[in-house]
Design goal:
This is Hydrolase or metal-binding protein. By secondary structure, the chain is of the alpha+beta class. The chain contains eight helices and 14 strands.
């Protein structure tokens, strides 16, 4: 295994909420009220749709607001990785990744382990660091590729907090059988005073439609038993993924970062857009309101 290269789950597609559009010569993110499944290939018109997008959209009867999924791993932290992240917009390289206590920061002499005070108090980041998470899921039951995942990337505090809670709770109530639960991603909307009552959207994780939690847990136990009989070793898969993530300082490849920066770190970022839309005033209260509005705008 190449040292310094994070070994991440194989990705066969993307899950997004919105797209990047060109306005006044600038490419800016535009949010949507539905999911879109794409391949990893871009054309001049944007990301090329994945065949599953059309199939799921037909089943939904139009707008795609829920996606049947399964988790790859039993460990919640392997499915959803969330960090405070800083990218170099010029070179496209990841610069610093932290969790609020410690961080890994790239320098001329390599990668250093340093204290992390969070984006609000970090002088090094100069306001350019923000929460950033990646969720890998199997769409459907992984019929086409049992280890090929779709990745949902987000900088939304609403989505990160909700997904983190759901994964921990589902793992707890199922006795650690997270990878066997029949789940679905669901797009939810809410409004706040900071968003001027306009709806903002975030991603939730629930048991599949028409199933109770108890029925989902029963199915998970049955699926786990079937996999064990077939020789499927979930514990070994989790441990392999854990070693793979730990093999590199940064998860994102340099070739993938430009698309991440374009979608989540555009010029005139979320906080600036929120301040233009919401009259918050100055001082700590104003900054907090601007941040809440920016987090809501992120979905």
């Amino acid at each position: 295994m190449l040292k310094g290269l994070a070994i991440t789950p194989p990705v066969i597609g993307r899950i997004s909420i919105g797209r990047v559009v060109e306005r006044n010569g600038k490419r800016l993110p535009e949010k949507d009220d539905q999911f879109t499944l794409t391949t990893q290939v871009q054309s001049r018109d944007g990301w090329i749709l994945h065949p599953l997008d059309e199939a799921l959209r037909k089943e939904a009867g139009g707008k795609l607001r829920s996606i049947p999924v399964r988790m790859l791993f039993n460990d919640p932290a392997l499915n959803l990785r969330a960090d405070y992240s800083l990218f170099d917009r010029t070179s496209g390289r990841p610069v610093c990744v932290g969790n609020g206590e410690t961080c890994r920061r790239a320098g001329k002499g390599g990668v250093d382990a340093l204290p992390c005070v969070g984006p609000d108090q970090c002088g090094f980041a100069n306001g350019e660091c923000k929460a950033y998470a990646r969720l890998n899921v199997l769409v459907g039951d992984g019929e086409g590729d049992a280890l090929g995942s779709f990745v949902l990337r987000t900088t939304s505090f609403n989505t990160i907090r909700t997904l983190a809670a759901r994964l921990e709770y589902f793992s707890a109530v199922s006795g650690g059988l997270l990878a066997c639960l029949p789940l679905e991603l669901k797009l939810r909307g809410k409004s706040t005073t900071q968003s001027h009552r306009a709806p903002i959207y975030y991603v939730d994780l629930v048991v599949r439609d028409a199933l109770t939690l108890e029925e989902a847990i029963a199915q998970a136990r049955e699926r786990d038993e079937q996999r064990r009989v077939c020789g499927f070793d979930q514990a070994a898969l989790d441990e392999s993924a854990r070693r793979g993530f730990a093999n590199g300082a940064f998860e994102e490849l340099e070739e993938d970062v430009p698309a991440v920066v374009e979608e989540f770190y555009p010029d005139g970022g979320g906080e600036q857009r929120a301040e233009a839309r919401v009259s918050t005033g100055s001082g700590l209260k104003g900054r907090l309101e601007a941040r809440v509005a920016a987090a809501g705008h992120g979905g």
